[in-house]
Write a structure and sequence with these properties.
about 170 residues; alpha+beta; OB fold (Dihydrolipoamide Acetyltransferase, E2P); DNA polymerase, domain 1; 2 domains; about 20% strand; elongated
Length: about 170
């Protein structure tokens, strides 16, 4: 699998007393925030291949302010470019415990929406598009729901108990 990322910002950072070009980007497959040390000429929102580059995973508070401003737009673009993956999340979500379901972790989804989604799948079959999900009564925009959850997971980093879309961040001891 190709290791692709989308550029959020490019800055010069002092590393070992030397100004070094650093690219802040987000992985397209697991939404990892990355710090790439590279001389390559890139623009914000370019898609780059990080294979063979010096890459370090960083937390939300370590990226630049410009990166933070671009983040929501980039995450939404990734979601829109992979609709099947995220529609299938609604189709294949499962209970986490006796009292909690994966759908409960999504912002703006309460018990009534959760039950309506599960009932729809049970009676009418799986969803094929985001438009199918929007047809549920009083349902907020599913794209916005997913983007908000991903941003929440990215911002919370190591504090996340449940990671639905991002790769868990492991704290260094």
């Amino acid at each position: 699998m190709k290791k692709e990322a989308i550029v959020l910002d490019k800055v010069n950072k002092e590393i070992k007393f030397k100004q070094t070009p650093v690219i802040y980007c987000i992985g397209t497959s697991n939404f990892s925030l990355l710090e790439v040390i590279a001389e390559t000429p890139v623009k914000i929102l370019d898609k780059i291949d990080t294979e063979g580059m010096v890459v370090r995973r960083v937390t939300y508070d370590r990226i630049s302010n410009d990166s933070k401003k671009e983040l929501e737009k980039v995450v939404e673009g990734i979601v829109l470019n992979n609709p099947d993956k995220f529609v299938n999340f609604f189709n294949n979500s499962k209970p986490i415990s006796l009292k909690r379901h994966q759908l409960d972790l999504l912002p703006m989804i309460g018990k009534k929406h959760r039950d309506a989604i599960l009932e729809h799948i049970k009676k009418k079959g799986k969803f094929n598009t985001f438009e199918d999900i929007k047809k549920i009564e009083m349902m907020p925009d599913p794209i916005n729901i997913i983007v908000n959850r991903i941003i929440e997971e990215i911002k919370n980093g190591p504090e996340n108990k449940y990671c639905l879309f991002t790769m868990p961040y492991i704290k260094k001891i």
